[in-house]
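Consider the tokenized backbone below.
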């Protein structure tokens, strides 16, 4: 049986009105297409549950929220703080038949990255089914994508071509980044965070004094005792003493919350 992890993710789409953002989401979430212009007023949020494999023995159950924004520039500036905040990935969408929609991404994407930070960006060229009306070249598309290291995906919301591929690729990217960030944090963690992470995994059972030294090899007793005292003073753990020299450390709800804030993963 694979190890199952859980996480929530936010994906924000951006681009000019009429490029097919809403239709792409509808095709991915519902596998439906509506042959009329779906005008988005304000923002719309769709939710989908995905199973994303990671390596040979891990899979991630992801609750993805997909945010769809009205394509008008003024509205974009009005809501960008709340719309992009907390996004784990961005999808810039343009229309294969409209050159203006491609170059508009030179404004949409940097504006989003200012809020979202260093997150993966995909450039989706929609309406692949209208190849005979193509208005932009591959070189022009690459010129826009390269500054953001954005992979390019040609899709058709009408036929469904490569729509799942685009969204699933971003989901995999989100998971891969979460694992890399988790590993990087583990390397950088000081004794304080190591103690909290260990105790969080043990829950109400806690860890005894000798167990700390079995797991945290090479840790000085005075350093450990000082750190445990600080954490207890902050209300992040409780020390249950057994006599004068032995103890069990148990994490508090406040300590659990502090640990969870540092991780993308959710509890099982």
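A designed sequence for it:
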């Amino acid at each position: 049986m694979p190890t199952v992890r859980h996480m929530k993710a936010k994906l924000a789409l951006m681009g000019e009105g009429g490029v097919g953002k809403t239709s792409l989401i509808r095709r991915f979430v519902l596998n439906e297409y509506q042959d009329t212009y779906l005008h988005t007023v304000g923002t719309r949020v769709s939710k989908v549950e995905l199973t994303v494999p990671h390596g040979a023995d891990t899979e991630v159950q992801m609750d993805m929220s997909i945010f769809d924004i009205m394509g008008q520039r003024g509205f974009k500036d009005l809501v960008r703080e709340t719309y992009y905040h907390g996004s784990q990935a961005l999808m810039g969408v343009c229309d294969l038949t409209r050159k203006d929609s491609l170059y508009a991404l030179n404004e949409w994407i940097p504006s989003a990255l200012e809020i979202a930070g260093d997150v993966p960006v995909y450039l989706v060229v929609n309406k692949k089914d209208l190849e005979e009306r193509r208005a932009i070249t591959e070189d022009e598309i690459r010129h826009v994508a390269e500054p953001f290291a954005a992979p390019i995906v040609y899709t058709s919301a009408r036929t469904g071509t490569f729509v799942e591929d685009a969204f699933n690729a971003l989901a995999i990217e989100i998971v891969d980044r979460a694992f890399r960030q988790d590993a990087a944090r583990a390397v950088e963690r000081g004794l304080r965070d190591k103690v909290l992470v260990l105790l969080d995994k043990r829950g109400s059972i806690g860890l005894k004094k000798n167990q700390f030294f079995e797991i945290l090899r090479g840790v000085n007793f005075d350093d450990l005792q000082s750190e445990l005292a600080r954490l207890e003073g902050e209300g992040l753990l409780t020390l249950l003493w057994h006599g004068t020299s032995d103890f069990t450390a148990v994490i508090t709800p406040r300590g659990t919350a502090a640990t969870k804030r540092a991780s993308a993963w959710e509890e099982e």
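The mean pLDDT is 89.
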